[in-house]
Every structure is written in structure tokens, then in C-alpha cells.
Q: What sequence folds into this?
């Protein structure tokens, strides 16, 4: 038995760290050993759930077709809300197996795809309705200072806001030696600090890239 392995993680951060990939790889390898199968090739997709293109999946499906291999994924339930993935899998015409749901078939996947699409549309609709309602109440949307925005809007609870602020304060304290070192090197402007932190692979408290505004918030926390 020949196997083509397909792994998927949903963010580039997870892709770089390997988070989730190793567990999927082990599940597929365990399945291959139990069937006495050989893995021809492994394809890894790093993408957002909102993006419908699946280039690595297409490559995996093509190889499975031309070699007569079985496409094996680790966890179908993890992807059960991803309509694009499920429809591509259902319509591919290749044999496939999910290590966590070995009895799944084209009918199972088709039903999952319909449910996933409906849920995706429902989530989008609810989100838009909530945003319109918030805007009608005068809530300022898109503010990067999430905790402050919650306080101004009178939403959330004090414990949650305090936790967000505490994490940001702790993150700032950890970065203080780096900021001090940059200052000694003459790197003091907001843009230059942001570039230096990004170059060093350091992330904001929310796990994103640094910009002038986030550096300004960081320096303000360190000054208090």
C-alpha cells in the first residue's frame, strides 16, 4: 500500500514552530505502520482558514492519482468546518483515509462540507451584524488597544481587562533590556525600534509585527 501524506496548520506562526505538525505526522506514520504501507511523499500546507486555495493539497491529490496511492490526513475532525478543503477532498476522485476517522467516506465528507459552509456563512453574518450594532451604539471599531476599547465601550469584565493589561506589562518588562540596548546603539525613533524588533524576530503581546504605534505603547508602559 502506498500513501501520500497531507499535513496542515492554519497560521504561518504554527508552520514556523512546527506546532501541530509533529502530532499529525506521528498519527499518519502510525497508520502507515499498522497497514504495512510506505509514505511516498508528505505535503505540508500552511494557510489561513479564510483562504480557499490549497496548492499543497492539489499537489498531494495529483501525486495520489498518478501513483494510485491513498491520500492520508491525520485529523478530519480538525478540518470539519473547512468547506473548501472538504469539497476538494470529496471531488478529487482519489482514495483517502483520515487517521482519526478511518470509516469516513465521500458521503460523510459531503455532509460535513455542507454543514461547514452553512456555519461559515452564519459566523460571518453574525459578525457583521454585531459590528453594525456596535457602530450604531457609537463604539469606535478597529482600535488596536483592545483592553482600553473594552473599557470605553463598557464591555467585558474587569478581570479579563486586568489580565490583558498584566500580560502586556509583563511582555514590556521582558523587552526592556532589548530597548535599553537599542538606545545605547542610538536606535531611538519609533520606526527604527520597530524595524529592529522585527529583525530580531520579537513579537508584540498579540503575537504580531511591530509598528510605530505598538512601539509607542511599549515605551509608554516602560515609562510608568
A:
Amino acid at each position: 500500500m502506498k500513501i501520500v501524506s497531507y499535513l496542515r496548520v492554519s497560521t504561518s506562526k504554527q508552520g514556523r514552530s512546527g506546532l501541530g505538525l509533529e502530532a499529525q505526522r506521528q498519527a499518519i506514520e502510525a497508520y502507515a505502520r499498522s497497514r504495512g504501507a510506505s509514505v511516498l511523499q508528505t505535503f505540508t500546507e500552511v494557510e489561513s482558514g479564510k483562504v480557499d486555495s490549497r496548492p499543497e493539497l492539489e499537489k498531494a491529490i495529483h501525486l495520489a492519482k498518478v501513483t494510485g496511492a491513498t491520500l492520508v490526513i491525520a485529523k478530519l475532525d480538525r478540518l470539519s468546518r473547512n468547506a473548501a478543503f472538504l469539497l476538494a477532498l470529496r471531488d478529487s476522485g482519489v482514495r483517502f483515509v483520515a487517521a482519526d476517522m478511518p470509516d469516513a467516506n465521500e458521503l460523510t465528507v459531503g455532509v460535513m462540507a455542507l454543514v461547514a459552509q452553512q456555519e461559515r456563512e452564519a459566523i460571518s453574518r453574525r459578525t457583521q451584524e454585531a459590528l453594525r450594532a456596535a457602530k450604531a451604539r457609537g463604539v469606535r471599531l478597529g482600535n488596536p488597544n483592545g483592553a482600553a476599547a473594552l473599557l470605553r465601550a463598557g464591555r467585558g469584565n474587569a478581570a479579563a481587562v486586568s489580565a490583558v493589561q498584566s500580560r502586556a506589562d509583563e511582555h514590556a518588562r521582558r523587552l526592556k533590556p532589548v530597548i535599553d540596548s537599542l538606545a545605547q546603539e542610538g536606535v531611538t525613533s519609533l520606526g527604527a525600534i520597530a524595524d529592529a524588533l522585527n529583525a530580531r524576530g520579537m513579537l508584540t503581546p498579540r503575537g504580531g509585527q511591530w509598528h510605530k504605534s505598538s512601539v509607542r505603547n511599549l515605551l509608554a508602559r516602560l515609562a510608568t
User: Anything to note?
Assistant: Residues 83 and 117 are 5 Å apart (CA to CA).
